[in-house]
Specification:
Layout lengths: L1 E6 L9 E7 L6 E2 L4 E6 L4 E5 L4 E6 L6 E3 L3 E7 L10 H5 L3 E2 L15 H6 L11 H9 L18 H13 L33 H16 L2 E9 L1 H18 L6 H14 L5 E3 L5 E3 L5 E3 L1 E3 L2 E3 L2 E2 L7 H16 L13 E4 L19 E5 L3 E7 L3 E15 L5 H16 L9
Length: about 425
């Protein structure tokens, strides 16, 4: 018999360590080549690592929640000694289905039977036909496993089956929150409420990874911030008259994001030091490709899928690409190469109603732009008249090593100029 070591893979060009999530196999289990072995968590992605060989898992070297450097041995698999066992290639180590987060678009109402209950009651969902991650997701989303038809080998239920079921259930109008029982009516003699002691919560590996990345970003880049106000009235009017038709034709909503993204791409060509990085040897790397990252918020944290060569796309194509990336980020279907290589990031906290946000740079980018809510308010216009306009703040956080306030202001002016130049008729194709 021969022993093959499984090592921590490098999931991203700037990633040098990873955290063990859950082991999907235990010591002594038999595993097939390419079968999911363990969850790996970084500040950019959570992914299931496939086994590079088939055999028996004889030793787990790194326990859940432990963080180790790339290349560190994490497990040993015993294989039949039929010849030399080649080391797995980086592509093999990175192959697998990505989990951008364990959360979807929102919490769902508990079903009558959860995964754990089904297992305990001896239902159709036996341990042999449900993957560990699928069972975990089924518990999280309150899915009755007896209702799931597995698409894996031998009818095995995989996480993709759970996520597809949840997406279909939610799209069908499932309730998104558990009903809250009404509180008893207050009386003049009501007793004081016992609040108890403070609760301490252990952050999830994803939360800890994001925290580490944010601290590292602030420590790495001298952040500076500048803001402009943009008149979005013409775009708002166009969307008001066309968004319903667009959604009917394409199945998803057209928002302000692709308009802002298009303007940002053109402004990055005008101010190339905003599409750049500060290198380890103290040089400025000007990126020739514009790879746009989009901050996608989930219940488990913030993730940044990346659209390569975003400047080559029309507004309609940007809308389709952004919708696809966001949907797959929330349904855990991103690929590892779709969360790395960004050269700039657009963040849209305005979708949650914010009117002013200061973002943290996604390393190693030179900047990140936040677009806040478009709000109608009275504005002084030409001729000192007062008119109701649809206004939005754009906030740029930039690395002061690469750019000064002058370049930052010119960049924002270039974005604003393009957004305000749209007239009553807009060609999005």
């Amino acid at each position: 018999m021969a022993i093959t070591q499984v090592t921590m893979p490098q999931l991203g060009e700037t990633v040098n360590e990873g955290t063990i999530g859950n082991w999907l196999k235990k010591e002594g289990d038999t595993i097939r080549r390419d079968e999911s072995l363990v969850e790996i968590i970084t500040d950019k992605i959570t992914t299931e690592l496939p086994s590079p060989v088939g055999g028996k898992l004889v030793r787990i070297l790194v326990q859940p929640d432990q963080t180790v450097k790339v290349g560190t041995p994490i497990a040993e698999i015993e294989v039949a000694a039929t010849g030399p066992t080649p080391n797995p290639s980086p592509a093999e180590m990175e192959r697998g289905t990505t989990v951008a987060s364990a959360a979807g678009n929102g919490a769902t109402a508990p079903a009558a039977t959860t995964a754990s209950a089904t297992m305990a009651n001896g239902g159709n969902a036996t341990a042999e036909r449900v993957s560990p991650l699928a069972r975990k997701l089924a518990d999280q989303y309150h899915v009755d496993l007896s209702q799931i038809t597995g698409t894996g080998e031998g009818g095995r239920v995989r996480k993709e089956d759970i996520l597809a079921y949840v997406q279909q259930r939610d799209a069908g109008g499932a309730r998104t929150a558990t009903a809250i029982a009404p509180a008893p009516a207050a009386t003049a003699t009501a007793a004081p409420v016992e609040l108890g002691e403070d609760e301490f919560i252990t952050p999830s590996p994803v939360r800890r990874a994001i925290a580490e990345h944010m601290v590292r970003s602030k420590a790495t880049s001298p952040h500076a911030t500048t803001v402009v106000e943009v008149d979005m009235t013409n775009i708002a009017h166009w969307l008001e008259h066309n968004k319903a038709t667009f959604k009917q034709q394409h199945g998803y909503s057209l928002t302000y994001v692709p308009f802002v993204t298009k303007a940002v791409c053109e402004a990055l060509r005008e101010i190339p030091t905003m599409n750049a990085s500060w290198t380890a040897d103290n040089r400025i790397q000007l990126h020739k490709h514009i790879n746009m990252g989009f901050a996608v918020s989930t219940d488990n944290g913030l993730f940044v899928p990346v659209l390569k060569d975003a400047d080559q796309k029309s507004i309609a194509e940007l809308a389709a690409a952004v919708n696809d990336l966001a949907t797959r980020a929330r349904s855990n279907r991103l690929k590892p190469d779709e969360i790395q290589g960004s050269t700039f990031v657009v963040n849209n906290p305005g979708v949650f109603g914010t009117i002013f946000s200061v973002p943290i740079i996604n390393q190693p980018n030179a900047g990140i732009l936040s677009m806040d809510a478009v709000v109608k308010r009275p504005v002084v216009v030409e001729g000192d008249a007062i008119a109701i306009r649809s206004m939005m703040y754009l906030c740029l956080s930039f690395d002061h090593r690469l750019n000064d306030g002058l370049e930052a202001a010119r960049f924002l002016q270039a974005v604003r100029r393009r957004l305000e130049a749209y007239g009553g008729e807009i060609n999005i194709h």
